[in-house]
Write a structure and sequence with these properties.
Elements: E1 5-7, E2 10-13, E3 18-23, H1 26-29, E4 33-39, E5 46-52, E6 58-60, E7 68-73, E8 78-83, E9 92-99, H2 105-110, E10 116-117, E11 121-126
Parallel strand pairs: 2-11
Antiparallel strand pairs: 1-3, 3-8, 4-5, 4-9, 5-6, 7-8, 9-10, 9-11
Length: about 130
């Protein structure tokens, strides 16, 4: 199992918090970077937050900076995205992806680059 598996999405109200998870194989976590992406209805997929598995560098998009936090539990092979103060514009399918080639977290997130993608988990924020 190389593809990540996301979970934890759901329906929340504006201002609520939600944490989504991504279980990755040891092989996936041995890649260079792993991150969260999202795709809202009718929009292109965008990078939300990416983190290096080698040096701890982390990237957040401007739209989530200060509200979302990415973290990794290596013992559980799990990547998390804690989302606070959710807004209707955060409504999207959230995907976890890992990058198998040397890539900065900025390039991975801004260019939406990943070699292993999960199936996504849907987050809906009502106003």
């Amino acid at each position: 199992q190389v593809q990540p598996v996301e979970s934890g999405g759901g329906l929340v109200q504006a201002g609520d918090s939600l944490t989504i998870s991504c279980v990755a194989s040891t092989r996936t976590l041995n890649t260079y970077a792993i991150g969260w992406f999202r795709q809202a209805p009718g929009k292109e997929r965008e990078g939300v937050s990416c983190t290096s598995t080698r040096d701890g560098m982390t990237y957040y998009s401007n739209s989530v900076k200060g509200r979302f936090a990415i973290s990794m539990d290596n013992a559980k092979n799990t990547l998390y995205l804690q989302m606070n103060n959710l807004q209707p514009e955060d409504t999207a399918v959230y995907y976890c992806a890992a990058r198998d080639l040397l890539t900065t977290v900025e390039i991975m997130c801004e260019s939406v680059i990943g070699d292993y993608w999960g199936q996504g988990t849907r987050v809906t924020v009502s106003s």
